[in-house]
Amino acid sequence: MDANEHGLVCGPEELKLLWAAFDDCWRTIKSYYSDDLDSIEAGRLRLANVLLAEYRDGVTDLDELKICARRWMQLWGSTERWRDQGRLTEEQDPLSS
Question: How far is CA 51 from CA 2, 42, 75, 88, 89, in A?
């Protein structure tokens, strides 16, 4: 794995690893998204970004990547529900910047 001014550069083996992690994670979480194409696209994009970020931070084991990605996706889902229910303010939101 290399990084350049445009981001992450992956070879074929790294891409296979990331794709396998993406496919496995999506199979386990896709039921949490509605049939709305925008919802599905947003969820898949979020998952891809999580996997790339974890990989860039040094997580290169397939099982570890899947665990990290599922945890982030679960945190996002909980945070969105709590925010929608008024149970979480922006100051308390661990995902707000």
Answer: 16, 14, 14, 26, 27
For the beta carbon of residue 17, count every other beta carbon within 10 angstroms: 17
pTM of the model: 0.73
Tell me, what amino acid is at 71?
R
Q: 18 pLDDT band (50/70/90 cuts)? A: very high
Pairwise CA distance, residues 1 & 49, whole Å? 16
Q: Are 13 and 55 in contact (CB under 8 A)?
A: no
Q: Compute the distance between CA of residue 21 and CA of residue 90 in angstroms, rounded to an integer.
A: 31
What gap in Å lies between CA 55 and CA 17, rounded to an integer? 10
> What are the residue ranges spanned by the domains of the chain?
9-82
